[in-house]
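Please, does this match?
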Amino acid sequence: MIRASVDETWDATGTADMTSEVDWKTQADALIHRFKDDRTEAWHEEAHDIAVQLVTCLGTANGSVPRIEELLQRAAELPARASSADSLRRILIRYWISLTEDGHSSLLEPGCRIIGVHGNLGIATESTDPPSQRWMAMQDYRLPRAAGPTDWWTALTFNGGAILVRADVTPNLGRPTDDQLWELVEHAGEHGAAVVAELFPHLAAQARARR
């Protein structure tokens, strides 16, 4: 079992809701200017285009869930340990949650990539018991009320450490590449690396071959 911090926030009764008035366009516009003014990294151009496409989606009546999910997939390919990439992912995931708060069936599986509500990229490792209401009430971000029983998962993050995510507000972004897995192992610590090796046995074989 991996110890994790909770990546969600609930009120004292265990009921959650998301801030209803969020100026998504202002946040996205700020990132557009940030990536436009700073092209020091090769991935900044891709990040700039994702932010521009997000603003385009915001211009529609209700946004486009499939389009936002496509942008989430692209954002998941940006560097995992870059704060500005996390900022872009954070806006995308929270906007996606606001569009799907009436219900979303997310089938997480061990080893799939996820994005937490703070924009941190990781992989789901195992389903787990829901955290305590007291613990959930201490978090600094509010999610929509769950429509019914929902699963919780532990996830290892590329920034190091682990988080808990609620399955119904966490999209499955597919399997990580081997390069992404090696990056995860580099920052996962001994126990986290063991979990990755258990989920991806071929990685352990590669590690033995490198010795």
